[in-house]
Write a sequence for this structure.
RNA sequence: GGCGCGGUAGCCAAGUGGUAAGGCCGAGGUCUGCAAAACCUCUAUGCGUCGGUUCAAUUCCGACCCGCGCCUCCA
């Protein structure tokens, strides 16, 4: 429900819900491809307007919020002494003259610069996006949805709240302020912030143009599993500099695991052999450590390991090995004809012809892979 | 300027007060006519720099250098 999405909806003359649904669908497809388990509940901000309004009303009643002249409602940060604890911000410590951004448009409406919007009054740019409320027509501020939906679906206090470090301030700080002031209870017992994925040494972002979508990677011949493995190879709490090279490393590592899995018996193993892997995962989600432990075991051979135990590890890591490394390409008829000739020549032990035909195939852009009982054709790797 | 994360082999990356997991690349080998695949072996006296503590530091402490992120309505 942010300005940008509303603007896009108006420009394309499509309902807001349709625009957001398009991205939601894309997100779901990518998550599925990456083998992420779907959440039990996926609430939407627009589906919880009442809950948000209710929460804002309570905050106002308890003196944590105030109405501005234009009909917007702001959270009064000064009313919550704990504010800033999560991000170690004792007080507003912004120093002028460095990277301070220009004052926001609603600066005049707020009593204090650190206050933030709970409810934004409707303005012409919003078009038909808006809901009626005790404060008039408008829409919720962008932090309150999380507080309201979390309360409704998970209760006043949750065990763990996760997110990227960029959300630490102000978003999570504001969530805490809203929820704790409204409910009078601890919002989240634990926080886990993941670091950024870096591309070319910078935070991946649309504005920098150093952004890859899953489809981009697929177009380059990589699989979603390779991406998943690559992300697993870095600690979630450390920045990971993503490179296309790392996808290649992932591809090889997955192939090794796939080949190893094929050697495993259906039963008779000792599940405890993988304890180090789970120990690493249990230790602050140390996924690189877990992969290291996994390969240490793999390198020792398959003694004591069976399929069910190995598959439990794969499940825990969310890795699926049954995916082909690259999409199969259909060779043109003339290429197949060459391949048939070479296979026949090879069978006849006419190796000179066979080698010549391999060369011709290569010139045509195809690599012929021999097996015991047949061959396959793959597009030649580009140099 | 404030707050936070990080600097470990060519690349990616764990980790510990007692002398460096793992993956990729590379090299050698086994096996296949060749190629590919698979498998085996090898590859950091060293963990940003300089000091300090210690019998012992990459691991603790201090200073410094470098990279990245956040610092308010973009979610």
């Amino acid at each position: 429900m942010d300005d940008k999405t509303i603007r896009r909806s108006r420009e394309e003359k499509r309902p807001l819900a349709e625009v957001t649904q398009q991205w939601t669908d894309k997100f779901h497809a990518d998550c599925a491809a990456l083998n992420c388990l779907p959440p039990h509940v996926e609430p939407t901000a627009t589906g919880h307007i009442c809950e948000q309004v209710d929460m804002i009303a309570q905050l106002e009643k308890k003196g944590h919020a105030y109405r501005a002249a234009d009909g917007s409602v702001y959270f009064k940060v000064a009313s919550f002494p704990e504010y800033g604890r999560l991000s170690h911000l004792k007080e507003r410590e912004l120093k002028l003259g460095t990277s301070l951004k220009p004052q926001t448009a609603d600066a005049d409406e707020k009593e204090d610069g650190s206050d933030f919007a709970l409810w934004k009054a409707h303005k012409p740019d919003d078009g038909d996006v808006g809901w009626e409320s005790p404060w008039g027509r408008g829409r919720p501020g962008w932090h309150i949805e999380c507080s309201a939906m979390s309360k409704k679906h998970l209760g006043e206090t949750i065990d763990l709240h996760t997110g990227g470090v960029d959300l630490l301030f102000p978003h999570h700080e504001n969530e805490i302020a809203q929820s704790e002031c409204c409910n009078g209870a601890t919002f989240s017992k634990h926080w886990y912030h993941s670091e950024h994925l870096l591309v070319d040494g910078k935070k991946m972002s649309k504005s920098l143009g150093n952004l890859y979508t899953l489809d981009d990677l697929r177009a380059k011949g990589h699989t979603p599993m390779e991406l998943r493995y690559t992300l697993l190879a870095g600690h979630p709490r450390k920045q990971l500099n993503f490179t296309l090279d790392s996808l290649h490393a992932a591809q090889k590592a997955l192939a090794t695991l796939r080949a190893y899995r094929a050697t495993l018996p259906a039963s008779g193993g000792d599940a405890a052999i993988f304890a180090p892997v789970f120990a690493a995962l249990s230790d602050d989600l140390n996924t690189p450590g877990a992969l290291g432990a996994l390969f240490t075991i793999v390198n020792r051979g398959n003694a004591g390991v069976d399929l069910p135990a190995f598959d439990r590890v794969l499940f825990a890591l969310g890795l699926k090995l049954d995916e082909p490394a690259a999409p199969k390409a259909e060779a043109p008829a003339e290429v197949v004809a060459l391949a048939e000739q070479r296979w026949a020549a090879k069978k006849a032990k006419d190796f000179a012809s066979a080698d010549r035909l391999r060369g011709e195939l290569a010139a045509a852009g195809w690599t012929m892979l021999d097996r015991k009982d047949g061959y396959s054709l793959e597009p030649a790797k580009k140099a």
